[in-house]
Each structure stands twice: as structure tokens, then as C-alpha cells.
Amino acid sequence: MGARVKVLEAIPPGRRWNMIRSREESPRISLDIRRDKQGEYFEIRTAPGSDQEIVVLNVQPREKHLLLLSRQFGEQGQSLAKQKFLCGHDERHWFVAAIPENEPVSTVADAKIALKPEEVRTREGLLGISRSASFRRRNPAFIRQGEWFFVPTALKADPLLVLKDEPLSRGNGGKPHWAEECYRSGGDTVYVSAKYPSGLTADEYKKLPASGRNVGFNVMKRDAAVYVRGKMSHPDHETVTLNGWHRVLMNTENRSSAMRFLAFLD
Questions:
Q1: Which helix (H) or strand (E) holds 137?
Q2: Can you give 167-227 as a three-state secondary structure string?
Q3: Which residues pair with 84 in a beta bridge?
Q4: pLDDT per position as a tens digit, 146-198
Q5: Residue 11: which of 178, 258, 211, 260 has the closest Cα?
Q6: Residue 260, CB-side half-sphere exposure with 13 Å CA sphere
Q7: pLDDT tens sequence across 109-126
Q8: Which of 191, 197, 196 shows the shortest CA–CA distance to 219?
């Protein structure tokens, strides 16, 4: 699909957002997008001495997308884990997205559908969105920016609770998307820091030593219903303008084992 790739042994310390793990929870493989003097490339790191195979199941060169399968094996050849990744180019950069294990995908098109939230798929069906239109970044059912889907919603938000210039983050330390206006309802209050990117509940936070509770924590909402309108911006994506309130939905990566340590944070 026109991308460079480097395969190395050893998992980098602290890397967990896209690891496949065995039943013993030892990391076996990590995929990432890196940059050198020649530009971006895919980096695949494998655990030293691990027995595994990596297979390209499907490739779409014109779209610059491919579906990758990784299998890990134990000492007796038994299968320990397998994971599928959609690798490709989206607007300005290469990306890699983990596919939920319960989604039976074998093609790039299958993977794109599997990454859509169920609410988006249902809405597309109700609106009669064609297959070709369903793969666009914008159609009557949604507007997409990276991993976020924005679904038009009839909402009357309390003006006093509407926040300005709010970040949307999935809690993995990546660059947030910024909403011109944001309104949230429900969800759980969590305490978030660089050490605890997925957040701690109030009880978990209180159990920390007093010295540890004063180091870089922000109070955020996890798994809240989030609505945005106006401009949505991100340095890696084209700015989109949402006319009226839109429900925010994240793609389904968080359902995969490779993403299970992440949470919906905003």
C-alpha cells in the first residue's frame, strides 16, 4: 500500500495501547507509527524469542489500506492469541487500528465496518445509506474525524452547562480533538493523570498516598454522553464544522484486547 515498515525485537517500555498479550499477560507484539528523516513508517516490535506469524489478509493499494493478522503461539505450538489490525492512511498520516475479536473480518471493507459503533451502523441502515457512501467521512448518518463519529442529534442543552473549547480524548495520551462547544450528561467522575490515563474512581483515588494525590491529576468524566457542535479541530485532521448538536461516539477499538486498558474520556 506504499508504506515503509520496520520489524524489531523487544517491546518498548510503557507501550500498552496496541499490545497483544498472552494468557500470562506478557506482551508479544506492538504496532506503532514512527517517524525518521524519510517520514512516517510502521514499526512492528515482537517479544524476543516469541513464536508468531504476521499475515496480510487483504490489501487495497489505491485506498492505501490493508488488513493485518497477527498470531502468537506457545512453546508447544498452541495458539495463545490472535489480533487483526487495519493499517492505512487517513487524510494526513498513517494509522493502525485494532479490530474487536468478535468481529469476523477478512477484508479492508469488513474492518472499516467493524470499527463503526453499533449506533452508527443502525442509523445507516435506517437511512438507507449505500455501501459506497458508508465508507465516506461524511454522509447523512454521521461525520467522522479520525476515530470519532459525530451523529446529528435533537438536543436542548442547558446554556449554563455548555463548555467552550473542550478536548476529546480516549485516554491514551494522544493529541486530543478540540470542540468549539461541548455538552455532557451522565458518566462517572474520575481522576486522570499521566500515570493513570484511564482514570481512577473516587474510591481508588482516596486510597493513594497523600503525596500521590497532588501530582498532576485532572477531574474528568468517563463514559459520559457527550455532544458537540461548531468546529472540531485536530492537528492531524481537516477541521470539520458541525451545524447543530451531534452525539460523540468513538470507534470500536476499545472493544479489542489490544485496547482494553483504554477508556472513553473527555
A1: none
A2: EEECCCCCCCEEEEEEEEECCEEEEECCCCCCCECHHHHHCCCHHHHHCCCEEEEECCEEE
A3: 69, 99
A4: 999 999 999 999 999 999 999 888 766 678 899 999 998 888 888 888 788 77
A5: 258
A6: 10
A7: 999 999 999 999 999 999
A8: 191
